Amino acid sequence: MNKSTRLTLFCRGATTANRELRLTSEGPLEPEQSEKLVQCLREIRHADKVFSAPEASCIETAHALSAQPEICPAFRDVDYGRWKSLALHDLMESEPDAVSAWLGDPAAAPHGGESLVDAGARISDWLSSHIDHGGHCLVVTHPTIIKLAILGVLSAPLASTDRIDVDFASATYLNSNGLRWSLRLRKPV
């Protein structure tokens, strides 16, 4: 018998690096994020299992939500290779062709790190292995990873990644009937 599974993908809180448009998810949350996250406690009230990406910003978010997460490497942020921690506007000046290739082709990884295709595949693999997990799981992860999960569930092209906005401290809902995942839109609690 197939088990139904609810999955809440919770976007971590914002960091100073995010405000500076740096390609990193490291660093502590901005001070006002903790208060914002406390307001989101209702998202995990009924979670049977809580997972977190391994980066400090995700773990700190999970703790701010009063959760003790299991670290899940599949939900780690994209590996930006030699571009890690660099500001996007600086890269656009120093390596405009490489940035253009990366933004235009999901299979490109001119930074020597991970392509969106590779990151999307690891998320899809995790979703496939948890399709009949049962219950309600909460995952604290990064905006790009949530976008890739949505596109994978919808079988949409990864080139559409920049057409989805994921706010920090927001939730995205997926449901599985044991056979397939679907995106679930719901009104706020």
UniProtKB/TrEMBL annotation:
Please state what the protein is called. Answer: Histidine phosphatase family protein
Q: InterPro entries given for it? A: His_Pase_superF_clade-1, His_PPase_superfam
The organism of origin for this protein: Aureimonas fodinaquatilis
